[in-house]
Design brief:
alpha+beta; L,D-transpeptidase catalytic domain-like; Membrane-bound Lytic Murein Transglycosylase D, Chain A
Length: 307
């Protein structure tokens, strides 16, 4: 009787151990990126898939965060001091960038090889669009391949949902594109061949940001995030959330970037890492700078070149 009881107990323990191992294998992180998107094993093999199924190189975060189309106004100040994000190094000589509004897109890069050419003002790129009955700002923005936020800023609109038929709006024929110089730690925003703005950036440690062309495939405001190394979870409104208030997901389409997913452009709560190789591969900017880039680049249309 005792022998039969012991045998049943041993069998139950083995079943529990095997079940726990299977659960760990299923939920374990697949990589080390900074994407707030859930992992998809098929995508890692080069398969496509919807944006909400793409590989999560650095996290397993919920997609409860509002997308760009939700029009939720994010906080502009990020005051957290957590060091538990994706930072791989902590250089002491990093220099933070200054900030300007899109209306005054003066080049901000302090790199020695910053472009000498001047920047173009948004008003110089604008034409006029007469609002038709039934048109929304979102529909107009989609027609011209720019963001609603950029049109609202260009026209001084405080409410993106209130435009009247017959109104004359300033519009810009997009899309804008970004070029990132890894050695100069600089992101330039272009409209065609005309420079619109420049920003200082942080890049991946150990040359971890692949060169080539990327397409912006999704945009999130105030995303949740989980550190895959420590499994620490950050809520959407947590000021210590390491990736900040804005996320622009990237998919590689040419060069060393082709087939790569899980990389992105986002903010940081560590301004000292700007101008240094400090991330696990993503491109990071100061909070106010990534908010401006978020207004320039369009989901599905804008190309980001890393060289």
């Amino acid at each position: 009787m005792r022998r039969r009881t012991r045998r049943r107990l041993a069998t139950a323990i083995i079943v529990l151990v095997l079940a726990g191992g299977a659960a760990w294998a299923y939920f374990a992180p697949f990589g080390t990126g900074e994407s707030p998107l859930p992992q998809n094993a098929d995508a890692s093999a080069g398969g496509g898939g919807a944006a909400d199924e793409l590989v999560n190189r650095e996290s397993s975060v919920s997609l409860n965060a509002p997308s760009e189309s939700s029009q939720r106004e994010p906080k502009r100040e990020v005051t957290g001091i957590s060091k538990s994000d994706a930072t791989a190094t902590q250089p002491a000589d990093a220099a933070p960038a200054t900030s300007l509004s899109p209306e005054e897109p003066v080049a901000r890069s302090t790199a020695k090889d910053a472009p000498a050419r001047g920047t173009v003002r948004l008003e110089e790129l604008a034409t006029t669009h007469v609002v038709q009955p039934g048109e929304s700002l979102k529909r107009i923005a989609r027609r011209y391949h720019v963001t609603e936020q950029l049109l609202a800023r260009l026209n001084g609109l405080s409410d993106l949902h209130k435009i009247q038929a017959g109104a004359r709006l300033k519009v810009i024929e997009g899309p804008f594109r970004a070029v990132i110089d890894k050695s100069a730690f600089r992101m330039d925003i272009f409209h065609g061949e005309r420079l619109a703005a420049s920003f200082r950036v942080g890049m991946g440690v150990n040359d971890g940001t692949p060169t080539g062309a990327w397409r912006v495939f999704n945009k999130l405001v105030n995303p949740e995030w989980t550190n895959p190394q420590t499994r620490q979870r950050y809520a959407a409104d947590d000021p210590k959330n390491p990736i900040g208030e804005h996320w622009l997901g990237l998919e590689g389409i040419s060069g060393a970037a082709v087939g790569q997913i899980g990389f992105g452009i986002h903010g940081t709560i560590e301004p000292e890492t700007i101008g240094n190789n400090a991330s696990l591969g993503c491109i990071r900017l100061l909070p106010e700078d990534v908010a401006t880039v978020f207004e320039y680049l369009v989901e599905g249309d804008s190309i980001v070149e890393v060289k």
